[in-house]
Amino acid sequence: MDVLQDAFTWLNDPLNWTGRDGVLALGADHLRISALAVLLAALVALPLGVWLGHRRRGGVVTVVAANTSRALPTFALLTIFASTGLFGATATVLAVAVFAVPPILSNTFTGLMEVDADVRDAARGVGMSGGRSLALVELPLALPLVGAGLRTATTQVLATVPLAALVGGSSLGSIIVQGMALQRYGQVVAGALLVAGLCLVVEGVLAAVQRALTPAPMRATSGRRRRRAPRAVSEPPGPAPAATGQQTVTRS
Amino acid sequence: MPGSVGPVTSLENPGTAAHVAAAAGDPAANPWLSWDYVQRNWGDISRALEQHAGLTVQAVLIACAIAVPLGMLAHLRPRLAAPIVGTSSVLYTIPSLALFTVLVPWTGIGRTPVLIGLVVYALLVLVRNVLVGLSGVDESVRDAARGLGYGRLRLLLTVELPNALPAIIAGVRLATVTTVALVTVGVVVGYGGLGQLMFRGFRNNKYHAEILTATLLCLALALVLDLLIWLVGRAVTPWARRGREA
Q1: DSSP string covering A106-136, please?
Q2: Which sequence ranges are marked TM in the entry (chain A) (predicted)?
Q3: What is the mean pLDDT of residues A199-209?
C-alpha cells in the first residue's frame, strides 16, 4: 500500500524523531501527562475507595461515578477544561484524571468488600483495631484488585491523552492531528501506529509487572478474577472508552 | 485538522456571526448556559444531534448483528472463545483517535471511518456479554432441555439464547452509552455529531454555550437511549419480572 509505505518512510526519518516536536519529545510529554493524571486520580480514588470499602458502604457512589464517566464524553470534558483558561497540560491532566478515578475507585472498593467477613472477624478476634485490621489484613488481601484497577486506569489514560491534541495539548496524538490537517496520511498512519503501539506495550508491561508482583499461590485466583472482572457488566471499559474508550473505559 | 474540517465547519456555522456580534457588544459575556444560543442555532444543533443519534444507533445495530452470531459460535466451539475474547481485548486497547484516523487513507474522511471504529468497539463489549450470558445459563436447565430431546442447535436457539437475554441487553446498554461518548472523537475525521459543535465552540474563541450545550445533549442522548433499551429489555424478558415479583 502506498500510504503504508509513506508511513514507514515517515517513521524512518530521523528528523521526525528528534527536535521539539519529534516523536521522542511528544512521547515524553505523553508519558508525563499520563503519569501525572494517574497519580492525581490515585490520590483521590485510593483513599476514598479504601475508606468506603472498609466501612462497607458507598456502593452507590462507585456505581454512579462509573456510569457518569461512561456517558460523559472525554472529549467534552477536555474542551470544557481547555476553554476555561487552563492552559495546555494542566487542562489535559485534570480532564483525563477525572476519567481515571472510577476504575481505581471501584476496584479498590470491590477489593476491600470482597475480603472474607470471617477473615475480618478473625482479625478483630485476635485483638486488632479497625485500622490495624485494615492495614495488615484487608489491604494486603485487596491488593491484586487494587493493582488491576490502577492498570485499567493507566491504559485508559494513555489511550485518552492523544485526544488532547485536538484542543492544543501536546502528545503523540499531535502527530495524527497534524497529519490530518496537512492531509499527509502517511504521517497519520505512522502516528496511529505509534499511539496504538505505546498503549499495547505499556499494557503488556503492566500485565507482566502485575504477574511478577503477585505471589505465586495467588496467581491462579487473581488471574481468574482479572479475566472475569472485565467481563462483568459493572466493570468500566478500558479506553474511554474506552472506550471507552475505553472506556474504557470509558473508552474515548 | 483545519485543512479537513475547518472549511466545512466555517461554512455551516451561522452561530459565529451572532456570537462575534454579541462578543463585540460585551466582550466579557461568555456564559456557559445560554438559551439564546439554543434558540438561534436550533437547526444546527438538531442536525448534529440527529447525526450523533443516527450514527450511534446504526453502529450498535451492526455490532449486534455481528456479535450475537460470533458469541454463539464461540459458545458452540469453546476452543474459539479464547482467541475471540483475546483479540477483542487487544483491539479495545487501541485508542479511538488512532483507530478512526488509521482508516482514513482507505475510506476517506467522513462517516465511514467513524462508523467502522464505533462498530469495532461496540462489538468487543457485546461479544463478551453474549458469551458470558450463554455460558451463565443454569446447567440444570440445559440438562432438562437435553432430556427432552433437544438437539444442540435447538437448545442454543430456544433455551440458551432466551436465558442469556438479560446479559445481552446489559451489554447493548453498555455498548450504546459508550458509543454515544465515542462519537465525539469523530471530529478528527470531520464527522463527530455533537462533538463537532464542541470542537467548533472551542475553535470559535472558546464559545462556552456551544460547548456545554453539546455536552449536556450528549449526556441526555446517552440517558434516553439507555432508558429505551432498558424498557425494550423489560418487554422482551417478562419472565424475569415475574420471577422477581413472585
Answers
A1: HHHHHHHHTS-HHHHHHHHHTT--HHHHIII
A2: 33-54, 75-101, 133-150, 157-182, 188-209
A3: 87
